[in-house]
Predict the structure.
Amino acid sequence: MKRILAFLLGCALLALPLAGMAGCGSTREVNEGMTQLYIGNYDGGVGRTWIETLARQFEEDYAETSFEKGKKGVQIWFSHLKDEYKSGNLLTTIQNYREDIYFLDSIVYEDFVSQNRLLDISDVLLTPNELDDPVNGEHPTIAEKTDPSRLALYEYTEDTYYAMPFFDHILGIVYDVDLFENEKLYNDGDGPDGLPDTYDDGLPRTYAEFRQLLTTMKQKGITPFTWCGGDGGYRIDLLTQVWMRYEGYDNFMLNNTFNGVYTFPAGTLSAEEVSEWNATVNTDGTQTVTITEENGYLLQKQQGKLTALQFAKDILSDTANYSGAGFHTSQMHTDAQEEYLMSVRRPRGTNQIAMLIEGSWWENEAKPLFNDMAEAYNTATRKYGYGERRFGFMPLPVFDGGSTDNTVYMGRGTSAIVVSAKTSLPELCKLFLKYVHTNDALAYFNAETGVTRPYDYTMTDDQYGSLTYYGQTLRDLKTSENVKLVYATTADSTIRSKDNTFFGDWMWGTTVNGNPYSDPFLAFFDSDMSAQDYFDGLSVTYSKDSWARQYAEWAANGYVRSTVS
C-alpha cells in the first residue's frame, strides 16, 4: 500500500468532474467485461475527491483480478447525493437503489438492520486487514484501530457489526486566528487546559474571561458570533458541548449508560426522590445517587444543563453578541459560512465576525467560497483563498463548579459506512472497505479533507504540512492527551432508539407554562424566559411518569435490551 501515496499525490491534483465516474480522467463507458461496483456517497462536508481518488487506485491495483466469472477488473461508479441519503429518506428507498456501498453523514443503522437492509460486515472489522501495514509483525484488525467509544456505537450485538464509523463530527466554536491576532483578542494565560505552551494558550480559561472576551470584541466593533439560522442543530450542539464541558467525561457519559453514581448539589432532589432512590445526603448537603435505567430521568437535573442554558441566555442578552441572520430561517449553514468569511471584507470596527458555530468539516465544505474570494480579492498583501486564512477550534472555558479535567469536545457518532444487503458482490464490497481503511488511505483522507477519522493512523510530515492551519488544529486536538472527544450518542439502545431520541427531546426538550420547547436559543430569543425556567421544565418533560412511559414504548419496539418493571 505504500505505493498509494505517490499515486494519491498526483491524482488528487486533478478534478473529477462527473459524479458518476471514478477516475483521474475523462468520461468513460461501462465495460461489460469488468465487474461494476456502485457506491453512494453523501455529498456533504467531506466532499467526494477523496473517495473517487481511492476508487481509481483500487481499480488500477485490481485490474487483473476476477471478481465475477468471465470478467476481469472492476469499474467503480458513484452517486453523490444529499437529501436522498439522509437516514429517514434512505430507509424507505434503499431497496430501489443499485448502490452496493454507502458512505453516509448520519444514519440510525438499527432501523435498517431491523428491516434486513444491511449486510453483516463483522469480518471486515474483526479479521486482520491483510492490506494494511503490519504492526509488530502482524496485520491489525480495523476494530483494533477504531476509537473504542466510537466502535461500541456500531456493535449491534456482541461482535456483530452492520455499520462502521466514517469520520469525526466535532462540533463547536470556530474562531478567526488572524482576527484574534490583529485585534489583540488573546490574553496572557495558559488557556482552558491550564498548561503552558499548548494549542489553547491565550484563549479564555474561565467563563468570566470568555464573557470579557465578548465585551472586548464589542468595544472594538466586532460581532462575536454567527451561526446557521435555518437549522437550530448547530447552536443546540454547542450547548450540549457546554453541558459536557461542565460535567466532564464520566458524569456526562451517565446519559449514555444510565449506570453509575452522580452527586447533585444540595437540595436538587426532593425528599421523596432521596428516599425512593436511596440517595446519600453528604455532610455538605450534596446528594449522591446511583443512576440506573429506571431513574435516568434524574439526569435532567444535572447542573451542566443549567450552566449551558445560562450560556445561551448570556449570549442572547445583548443583540450585539450575534448576527441577526442567525435567526433567519433562510440562512442555512453555507450561508452562515459565507457571512462569516465575507465579514473580513468589512472595514475595521464595522462588525467583522470573530466566531462561527460549526462542525469540523466546514472549511473543506467552504472550499468553493474560499476560491471565489481568492479570485476576486487576493492582493500581494492580503490573501483570502483556501488555506491562506487561519482558523482554530476554540476549546470551551472552565465553568464555575464544573469539571477541570481534560477539555472535551462534542462529536456525533452517527456517520457510518454500510453495505446494502441486496449487493451481489459482498466479498468485493468487503475488500474495498478494507482497502480504504489502511493507514495510507486513512491518512490520505485526513490530508485531502482536513477532517480526522476515528481510527489510529499516522500521517507523514509532508501530509501534516499540507493541512491548512485549521486542519492542523483539528489533527492536534484529535491526538492531544489534553483533549477528550465525547460522542453524544450511546451504545445503549435505550437512547439510540428508533426515533433517535437522544438528539431530540432528551437533550433539550422542556415544558414551560404548558408550552413545549426544544431549542433554548430560540426560546430565549422569542421570550423573556429565564435559564432557570427552561431548566425546571426539563424535569416536567422527563418526569418519573413520562420517563417510565417512554421507556416502556422503547422496550415494546424492541430497542431496549432490558426493561423497567
User: Anything to note?
Assistant: The first strand starts at residue 35 and ends at 42. Residues 9-21, 497-503, 560-565 have pLDDT under 50 and may be disordered. The longest helix spans residues 233-257. Residues 112 and 193 are 41 Å apart (CA to CA).
